[in-house]
Design a protein that fits this description.
About 40% of the residues lie in helices and about 20% in strands. It contains 8 helices and 6 strands. It has a 6-stranded mixed β-sheet with strand order 1-6-5-4-2-3. Strand 5 and strand 6 form a beta hairpin. Helix 6 packs across helix 7.
């Protein structure tokens, strides 16, 4: 794993938003699509020091793929020309913790089913309690969820798989550490 410091500048945002809005009125050419969690502590554009028109962002609790998100990824890469698909998990993910605890509640149950393959994989890799009280288990599940999501993107999207095989795009993943502001690539 590589560790990269996310936003190193630590200075006030000096982007001219009005100019960026004008520049992007007639079109957009974001360099990447980031699949992230809905967590409010994970502001994708700020984490990667991006602004209006720089990246597409798809968000769902637990940062997993589904048909609509795969279609959005295909659009961003095949139609709009993005060169990177980035699956971004994060520490202290409430959706992953809920999946580790096998929470069942309304529509949340079906949503968490998407994270269960990562939970099951982690059960075979981490000793101790297999629930959210075991931070090592949760952290491994967060990583496995990113890796399995990447695998499913390749499996479920022949368009993205072919683009990756032809070296037109890269599909990568990482985990954002809320406590440090760093992203660890996995």
């Amino acid at each position: 794993m590589r560790e990269t410091l996310v936003s190193q500048r630590n200075k006030a945002n000096t982007a001219d938003h009005k100019a960026l809005i004008t520049q992007t009125t007639t079109g957009q050419h974001p360099k990447a699509i980031v699949l992230s969690c809905i967590d409010s502590r994970v502001p994708v554009e700020l984490i990667f020091d991006q602004t209006i028109g720089d990246v597409f962002v798809a968000r769902v609790a637990g940062n997993f793929e589904n048909t609509d998100i795969l279609g959005s990824m295909e659009y961003s890469c095949k139609v709009a020309g993005s060169k990177l698909v980035f699956v971004l998990g994060h520490e202290s993910c409430g959706a992953v913790k809920a999946a580790c605890d096998h929470v069942e509640l309304g529509n949340i149950t079906a949503m968490l089913d998407n994270i269960q393959p990562a939970v099951k994989k982690s059960e075979g890799e981490v000793s101790g309690e297999h629930n959210s009280s075991n931070s090592g288990f949760v952290n491994k599940t967060i990583e496995n969820n990113v890796l399995l999501t990447i695998e499913r993107i390749r499996e479920k999207s022949p368009i993205l798989k072919e683009m990756e095989d032809m070296k037109e795009i890269k599909i990568v993943g990482g985990v954002y550490h809320i406590s440090s502001g760093k992203v660890t690539m996995i």
